[in-house]
Specification:
This protein is an alpha/beta fold and 499 residues long. It has one domain: Rossmann fold (3-Layer(aba) Sandwich). The chain has 23 helices and 16 strands. Strand 1 and strand 2 form a beta hairpin. It starts with a strand and ends with a helix.
């Protein structure tokens, strides 16, 4: 299988080359030339497979230049008991017979990004061997909070790689920040950006497009790639867990094959819900993909109107990983639902870059609305959703998953749809302990406590265990204290690389 740019102005490449490149030369994102189909027998047979076996079965369909043994080695190195604290890797928790939480936070950094970023380094290094790539790969990452730590952990001391992570200096939770600035590893670099996530993401995109800088890197035997979900090797593993969840429900007798489900995803950069879209295109029976946004509800407005307009206030919320106004992976969806009308996608992306706004045509808007549904939750509604879920189910959720729960409740109110639903639970509640404690703990306990004291009380109050990757963060030395302006991000990378 070959991969082509979402903008259509770059040569097709193999899967391994797409993973190494990260982003296409024309600035587009790689998409597969065709989407493989799954049969009823595939889903039934997967019932007896482990998560690892299912992942191998999916990846073989997309990574056709990898051998089965190479794929197996990548999967086994990523999804094991050393990296994940649950043997199911991405288990389902049942809140009610028709409502299931897909827990994606059992990896080393306690967020869903681990599901992709534990395997991406394996895919990348295998791709380098396959293509004969001799340059050292510089992984360049912009993060709204979780991708950064997961990428740092995944690429730590991986031979042939360096990694540079930029995060909004004032736009992540205390625990997210500590996870990044205490990261050990000889090849890791971290910098806070004076601005929000979009400033960091735009800065990274400018570096990728800087031909002079690319030439400078080449002179030093260096080549850039990405661990953001613009990299197909990062997005592909996210398809797996939606297919696996459906196989679990079939095996448990919760569904009959062909019975449609709803999937609810708290969404910022659109990668996680795009994984569910590709799973549907492969044959996963889906009724609605429900896009749950926070107060930065640009995706809700887009899905409901067909107009994408980032010319709006930016809000810092208690679900900071979704504090995004430029959702990069939406470009892949536009390429798919437009029938791969690359000229049109180019026009929309140019309009976004120049005016901050574009409007899709009516056929594209109608196709999106036929599949996607969207609403949003503000911070007050998010806190209430955490409290309500705990009171009703004795199930503890983080702020992002709470956004999804609130939006799903709104969906049911508006549609009356009672189909079996899978909600992507994207982070451990302890990653956002202050907000979760505000929802759960009495004021008398919370008063005057810092975040690490609060998560201790939260664990004691609820009986939940603090993940090992969070438990002693406040005792680790700070190893990264660099801050930079968006304009200086290129120079910061150069300094990290000793150029």
């Amino acid at each position: 299988m070959q991969y082509q740019s979402s903008r259509g102005n770059s040569p097709q490449v193999s899967a391994s080359q797409a993973i190494i490149n990260g982003i296409a030369p024309d600035g587009g994102l790689y998409i597969p030339e065709q989407i493989p189909s799954l049969s009823k027998e595939d889903f039934i047979n997967w019932g007896s497979l482990s998560y690892q076996g299912r992942a191998e079965a999916v990846l073989r369909r997309f990574l056709t230049d990898f051998t089965p043994m190479e794929i197996s080695c990548c999967v086994q190195a990523a999804y094991n008991e050393l990296n994940f604290d649950n043997a199911g890797i991405a288990p389902l928790a049942e809140l009610s017979p028709r409502l299931h939480m897909l827990e994606l936070w059992h990896g080393p950094t306690s967020a869903f990004k681990d599901m992709a970023l534990q395997i991406l380094p394996q895919l990348l290094t295998t791709s380098m061997r396959k293509t004969g790539e001799k340059s050292q790969i510089v992984i360049l990452v912009a993060t709204s909070g979780d991708t950064g730590k997961a990428a740092l952990e995944g690429f730590r001391d991986v031979e042939g790689t360096r990694i540079v992570v930029f995060y909004p200096a004032q736009g992540v939770s205390q625990i997210q920040r500590l996870q990044m600035i205490t990261q050990a590893g000889e090849n890791v670099n971290v910098a806070g950006v004076e601005g929000n996530f979009d400033d960091a993401q735009n800065g990274v995109k400018r570096i990728f497009a800087d031909q002079d800088f690319i030439a400078l890197l080449a002179q030093n035997n260096l080549k850039m790639s990405s661990a953001n979900s613009i990299n197909w090797g990062r997005l592909l593993p996210q398809i797996v867990y939606y297919l696996s969840a459906y196989a679990d429900l079939l095996q448990q007798g919760r569904l009959e094959y062909g019975e449609e489900v709803n999937i609810v995803v708290p969404t910022g950069n659109f990668g996680n819900i795009l994984g569910a879209y590709y799973a549907r295109e492969m044959g996963l029976p889906v009724n609605r993909l429900i896009c749950a946004a926070n107060a930065n509800n640009i995706l809700t407005d887009f899905i409901n109107s067909g107009v994408y307009d980032r010319n709006r206030p930016f809000y810092k919320t208690i679900s900071p990983s979704m504090d995004i106004l430029i959702s990069s992976n939406l470009e892949r969806l536009l390429a798919e639902v437009s029938g791969r009308d690359y000229r049109q996608v180019n026009d929309w992306m140019k309009q976004l870059a120049t005016s901050g706004r574009y409007e899709v045509n009516e056929p594209v808007r109608d196709r999106i609305q036929a599949l996607f549904w969207s609403d949003f939750a503000d911070d007050v509604q998010t806190i209430e959703a955490i409290r309500k879920t705990w009171d009703q189910y004795q199930y503890l959720v983080d702020t992002h998953t709470a956004v999804a729960l609130h939006v799903y409740e709104r969906y049911q109110e508006k549609t009356g749809d009672t189909r079996t639903t899978i909600i992507a639970s994207t982070a451990s509640p302890f990653k956002f302990g202050s907000s979760v404690a505000e929802a759960i703990l009495p004021e008398a306990i919370r008063a005057g406590k810092d975040e690490f004291s609060l998560i201790g009380y939260l664990a004691e109050w609820t009986g939940y265990e603090i993940p090992r990757g969070i438990r002693d963060l406040d005792k680790l030395p700070v190893l990264h204290d660099t801050t930079t302006s968006p304009a200086e991000m290129r120079n910061t990378v150069a300094r990290f690389l000793n150029l």
